[in-house]
Design a protein that fits this description.
Elements: E1 7-11, H1 16-27, E2 31-38, E3 53-55, H2 59-73, E4 77-81, H3 83-99, H4 106-125, E5 132-134, E6 139-144, E7 147-152, H5 169-173, E8 175-176, H6 184-193, E9 206-208, E10 225-228, E11 234-238, E12 261-266, E13 271-275, E14 281-292, E15 302-307, E16 315-321, E17 326-336, E18 343-348, E19 351-361
Parallel strand pairs: 1-2, 1-5, 2-4, 3-9, 5-8, 10-13
Antiparallel strand pairs: 6-7, 10-11, 12-13, 14-17, 14-19, 15-16, 15-18, 16-17, 18-19
Length: 362
């Protein structure tokens, strides 16, 4: 159904959130068109689990679901081939980070490079006409002094601003987050009232189909090695550094009088360094690739709330200048499992202050 309002392309995954986002915009008078990324090239062939994933053979079903929503809403639907770009910018990044002993966050890179980048440029190049781009993210936007600020969603349990902090002002200036003002329960109820099949569809939880990612690596890349303590004493063997992350306890297979945790990954020596829980405690961290929203320059210390991973409870902290492009973030109280490669996202009340990639803990 065509409207005469502003033209908006909605990134559709086939799930409930993006489906309701499209319906809401249509009801508000926008002229809506659906866009879906094709990213699975089949080269790794991960096995599908019970839940759908971003990358896997289940993509065909997702595309069909997105197409069905567009038919129901009577809006145009386009698929955009981003298999090459996904391989180059997301899969390769993911592989390189794990092989370097870090724990990557592919969703953040995918949002920045694919969803809000290549998807829109390729869609426009193929002739899709739109002024705005909308997604089913739980987030809100606030305009201030010619800039666009990210604000947490109404539903604190579903807020996804953590995944969006790398977007720049130009990207946000043409972005809409229609469901940011609603709770997940309200979104599901709206989908039910619209008789969308996605109303009861399980959420996509995993990056790779089946939850594992070993299919992305060759046997030659995944080498066993020593598990050592802080003094370098060998305590056991690991099956490849890609299977471990800082804070991990399970799967070490080392008898010890106290529970042992991964406290560091030494990729250069192909070692996993373990210690007791107290060894995971950090007073702060150094972050690189800093992105700022609330201030133009990090010219002095600022009080913030820091989230060091998606499901981490925010903690009071201070961000201060460090080296060019980097910042020092010191927690008011020590935090555990600060993981290199993950993002630290900073907040001031409900607004995103900024964020960066964790380089190291201290």
């Amino acid at each position: 159904m065509r409207n005469n309002g502003p033209k908006v392309a909605v990134g559709l995954s086939g799930g409930v959130d993006s489906s309701v986002a499209a319906a809401l915009l249509q009801s508000q008078g926008y002229d809506v068109v659906g866009l879906t990324m094709e990213i699975f090239d089949g080269s790794d062939a991960p096995e599908e689990g019970e839940r759908h994933a971003c990358y896997g053979a289940g993509e065909k079903e997702d595309v069909e679901a997105a197409s069905s929503i567009c038919e129901q809403l009577r809006i145009p639907f386009h698929t955009i081939d981003l298999r090459k770009e996904y391989r180059e910018y997301v899969i390769n990044y993911f592989r390189e980070e794990y092989l370097a002993g870090k724990t990557p966050n592919p969703c953040i890179v995918c949002n920045r490079e694919l969803k809000f980048g290549f998807l829109l440029r390729k869609a426009e190049k193929s002739g899709v006409d739109f002024e705005f781009f909308a997604t089913g993210h739980y987030a809100r936007l606030v305009g201030k002094d010619g800039r666009f600020l990210l604000k947490k969603s109404v539903d604190p349990l579903k807020d996804q601003t953590y995944f969006l902090y790398t977007l720049n002002n130009e990207q946000l200036s043409r972005t809409l987050f229609p469901i940011g003002e609603y709770t997940k329960q309200q979104v599901r109820e709206m989908a039910g009232s619209l008789k969308f099949d996605s109303a009861h569809r399980p959420e996509s939880q995993d990056f790779i189909a089946g939850g594992g990612y070993s299919s992305l690596f060759t046997q030659r890349e995944v080498k066993s090695g020593d598990i050592v303590d802080e003094k370098g004493r060998i305590l056991g063997r690991h099956r490849g550094i890609i299977y471990y992350t800082v804070g991990q306890r399970r799967g070490l297979g080392i008898p010890f009088h106290q529970p042992l945790y991964v406290i560091r990954i030494d990729a250069e020596r192909n070692r996993i360094v373990v210690g007791v829980k107290e060894d995971l405690s950090a007073e702060g961290l150094i972050a690189k690739d800093i992105r700022l929203f609330l201030v133009e320059e990090l010219d002095r210390p600022f009080k913030v709330k820091a989230k060091i991973r998606l499901n981490h409870k925010e903690t009071a902290a201070t961000i201060a200048p460090y080296e060019p492009g980097k910042a020092l973030i010191r927690f008011d109280e020590p935090q555990t499992s600060v993981t290199p490669g993950q993002s630290v996202v900073l907040y001031s009340d409900d607004l995103v202050f900024g964020g960066g990639i964790i380089e190291r803990a201290f």
